[in-house]
Amino acid sequence: MVKTDTKGIWKVISASSMGTLIEWYDFYIFGSLAVVISTKFFPSGNPTAAFLSTLATFAAGFVVRPFGALFFGRLGDLIGRKYTFMATLLLMGGATFLIGCIPSYETIGFVAPLLVLVLRLLQGLALGGEYGGAATYVAEHAPEHQRGYWTSWIQTTATAGLFVSLMVILITRSLLSEEAFDTWGWRVPFWISIIMVYVSYLIRKRMSESPEFAKAKADGKTSKNPLKESFGHKYNLKFVLLALFGATMGQGVVWYTGQFYAMSFMKTVMNLETSQVDTLLGIALVMGTPFFVFFGWLSDKIGRKKIMIAGMFLAVLLYRPIYKTMYETADVSSKTVAKTESSADLDREKNISTATFHYSFTDGSKATKIISTDLNKMPFAPETKSTIITLSPNDKWLLVFLVWVQVLFVTMVYGPIAAFLVELFPTRIRYTSMSLPYHVGNGIFGGLLPAISTYLVTNAKENGDPEFYLEGLWYPIIVASLSMVIGMIYLDHKKRN
């Protein structure tokens, strides 16, 4: 067995991972604060439409990721990995900071959502160039027979970035009053990112170029036209398409179902209290993250394809029973009320009456329901404005377990995929070739999932479907099933480096 300089590799991983973590943090702050952002940058007349608009803006950042992959992937194969993902880091950090500075819709009108969309698109372009660079950089420093293990550390950064974003939000909420957080405190997580980006930039600045690319450049074997070589030659294009439809497409929907849709589902469909959702999701992420490394290591032993296909299969099989159990856990209609308190308020200027009911249940759960009545309309039609549910400790831990199971599926499909993609393409066009299928799979198929699934749930609820809350799962189930079948039949993973 060839001895490797693990100390040197750890320096590479640390520098790459820190920057990638920060970029994911920047990207996910927007999604983590989607409920709050929908009230700041969009018209307040229709909360559901505002939330869907926010999710659509969130998805827009994913849609442009393939274009970022093409642009920065080409640069990475022409000038090198190091300088390319330094540029993506600065672009992402600047866009994130500026989102936290945009005035609200009430102040500047439709210019607010327009500016948010533009900055969100810049974030997507930056992230499109970041991942391929970081994964390629680490893989080209690692021994071939250990690439699954070493690149799996990069895979942890996406989940870690989401976890850090949740923790920053929780800490900010705990330090400020609810009113202060709603007024200006939600901007703090966006502002903080600029500090982290600066520190990461200083670290990356001291990094050297990857040895494989440096050797190829010294030997004059780098590509002069990475885009043409990657997508203009039928042989390589076949591998690009197989990587997309047989792996990253399914991986993308499993990733975003297990982390982002789970969060959105608990907040908007189950109506759970926001801080409780962030806490239990954070716990599940911490418990699940080590499995990225485990499945990356295991893929070095038994192969990447088997583990990724198994993760898709388990997700397709278990999503509906998992989400059915989640929804029923928070369904207070079946619980016994132990105590009820109520209060009423009248806005004389608008002539609107608001009644607030606080329920305590025998199992320890709590619920707050706000009912508003517009006294200007005849006949009076009370309207439920919001319902907020706080779970009992036992129910909370059941949800932690159910989300952790979904994160486990994520680690199976995501842990080995960096090494899988790196080994699928030769060094001279690796950055470009692997970035496109990854970001189409994750950016298009995965990134559109929260908006599409939320729309399916909303539509089914309006049509009176008793199991409306499960309708959003059809999208990831169908996409993951197709990817799983294509991968099983056509994907013959052979190293091409």
UniProtKB/TrEMBL annotation:
One GO MF term attached to the UniProt entry: transmembrane transporter activity
Subcellular location(s) of the protein: Cell membrane
GO CC terms in record: plasma membrane
Domain Major facilitator superfamily (MFS) profile span(s) in chain numbering: 12-495
SUPFAM superfamilies noted in UniProt: MFS general substrate transporter (SSF103473)
Presence of the UniProt keyword Amino-acid biosynthesis in the record: no
Bilayer-crossing regions: 21-42, 48-72, 84-105, 111-129, 150-172, 184-203, 239-257, 277-298, 307-323, 397-424, 436-458, 473-491
Pfam family for this entry, one: Sugar_tr
Principal subcellular localization: membrane
Membrane topology summary: Multi-pass membrane protein
Keywords: Cell membrane, Membrane, Transmembrane, Transmembrane helix, Transport
PANTHER family in the cross-refs: MAJOR FACILITATOR SUPERFAMILY TRANSPORTER, SHIKIMATE TRANSPORTER
Protein name: MFS transporter
Protein source organism: Flavobacterium enshiense DK69
